[in-house]
Specification:
This protein has 17 helices and 14 strands. It is an alpha/beta fold.
Length: 493
């Protein structure tokens, strides 16, 4: 029981390494090592476990602490805005977090079953951690939120690894350092080889942060990112429709730019229902990228981003990776919507491959809401796309950890792709992220404002943009096979 409680506390401690805690404590102490230290503690607990079942329970407890603390904002969307009864929303949130905790549990069970009691266990630990995080981000459409690699956004030196290995590779490196620290804690700190490995991993990550994998193309463009701050409780009320429309028209008029970007479903209408005078108002100073529902050729409607010129010529991107339960009912779960009232919850997914949208000599690759959690999917638009633009509405989650965590995710996407990431959100965080992962500018959340920035398009490919997650997965599998060599080839070792 004590070890399970320790694992739970370690999982909760891991969340302190993610946003927004990096901003709370930045002036006094760096928080990016927290997830690595939390993993080092988990490695020690697994190392002392006597059975695979015990290791799985410890992994489950660690995951429960991490996800209950880190993604409990799901409760807000279900209860406060989804209309679900609080007890049912609390139970649903608990079950969701326990589902996510199954992946650290799986890693723990496999670790104890396969470990051989040598220093190679460090490789097995890191490899299993990376592989189970990738599995969590893939299985059943995936939910990679709080993957350890996201915590290593700048100023962490490990952020540089993202341009080569992506977020799962960064998680592998963090877990490898954690395993080395845990092994030294258990067997003695006087291990020059382990210390040298840690220094090399940190140092090489720092050097990779200095690499400029992509090059500027064209002239910088002026972009106005609008943050309407329209309350979620009012957004879909037909009587309040003029509130949304007037808010964005006023912001567009007051903050002219070559490109004006509105958040996800900023206009709570179908695109063909938006009055032409509203469209003309939004494009008075230049093009506009508008978050709005659009009809599809297959019937139904899609969550869209419409690029509109002053001549009202339109081209569109439609969201490909939909949110289960929020944007469509998974097969067999239509009953869920008897307990929750979620507007526009039956979207049609967009085509798997879509052309980047042309604008002023640049090519824009939009992504909508949590699509930017799936780094490999964003690579389909490269190398053609020169700018990335995320349109989000995280008002569903209230004033919670969701908004700063989502911005931190965008930081890793910018590093992985070597592109500027622009974010227009309803309530926050509206921001511009540079290709090195540094947040160049951001609006305070829950304010009605516009962020006007100069965005530089870029061309070229990072190693991650060329290989996607393949390189990180090969390294993780290779680490596991190296650790298991004696079991696989007992005579040769």
């Amino acid at each position: 029981m004590r070890t399970a409680a320790a694992a739970f506390v370690l999982g909760a401690f891991c969340v302190l390494g993610f946003a927004p805690f990096d901003r709370y404590f930045a002036a006094h102490v760096a928080v990016w090592p927290a997830p690595t230290l939390a993993l080092a503690g988990l490695f020690l607990l697994w190392r002392k476990a006597s059975t695979a079942r015990q290791a799985m329970l410890l992994g489950l407890a660690w995951g429960a602490g991490c996800f209950l603390f880190g993604v409990s904002w799901v409760y807000v969307s279900l209860s406060e805005f989804g209309g679900m009864a609080p007890p049912l929303a609390a139970a649903s949130t608990l079950l969701f977090c326990l589902y996510l905790a199954l992946f650290p549990a799986l890693a723990g069970g496999l670790f104890l079953r396969w470990r051989n009691g040598t220093a190679r266990d460090v490789l097995l630990f890191a490899g299993l951690w990376a592989l189970t995080e990738w599995l969590r981000g893939t299985l059943l459409t995936g939910f990679p939120w709080l993957a350890v690699g996201y915590s290593q956004s700048p100023p962490s030196p490990l952020a540089g690894w993202a341009s080569v290995l992506g977020v799962y590779g960064v998680g592998f490196v963090a877990a490898l350092i954690a395993g080395l620290l845990g092994e030294m804690r258990a067997t003695g700190w006087r291990k020059p080889g382990a210390w040298a490995a840690i220094v090399l991993l940190l140092g090489f990550g720092g050097l990779l942060r200095l690499m400029d994998w992509t090059q500027p193309t064209g002239s910088p463009v002026t972009v106005s990112l609008l943050q309407g701050n329209v309350p979620q409780s009012l957004k879909w009320d037909p009587k309040r429709l003029p509130l949304s429309v007037e808010t964005y028209l006023r912001l567009a008029r007051a903050h002219p730019a070559t490109l004006t970007v509105l958040p996800e479903t900023a206009l709570p209408l179908y695109f063909n229902e938006v009055p032409r005078e509203v469209l003309r108002g939004l494009t008075r100073h230049g093009d506009a990228l508008i978050g709005v529902a659009v009809g599809t050729t297959r019937g139904g409607y899609a969550n869209g981003a419409v690029m509109l010129t002053p001549e009202l010529t339109a081209s569109a991107y439609t969201k490909r990776h939909l949110v289960p339960f929020g944007e469509y009912p998974p097969p067999g779960f239509a009953w869920f919507f008897r307990f929750a009232r979620i507007p526009m919850s039956d979207f049609t997914a967009g085509a798997a491959r879509q052309e980047a949208l042309s604008f002023n000599g640049q090519r824009i690759a939009p992504n909508i809401c949590y699509e930017d959690l799936f780094g490999e999917e964003l690579l389909d638009a490269l190398p053609a796309a020169t700018l990335l633009v995320n349109l989000s509405n995280t008002a569903w989650f209230g004033d919670s950890l969701a908004q700063p965590q989502h911005l931190q995710i965008a930081q890793l996407r910018a590093i992985e792709t070597g592109r500027v990431m622009l974010r227009a959100t309803n309530t926050g965080m509206t921001a511009m992220v540079n290709p090195d992962g540094i947040v160049a500018a951001a609006l305070p959340p829950f304010t009605t404002a516009a962020l006007v920035v100069q965005a530089q398009g870029r061309t070229g490919l990072t190693p991650y943009a060329r290989w996607g997650n393949l390189l990180a997965l090969l390294i993780a599998v290779g680490a596991c096979l190296t650790a298991l060599r004696r079991k696989i080839f007992p005579k040769s070792s």
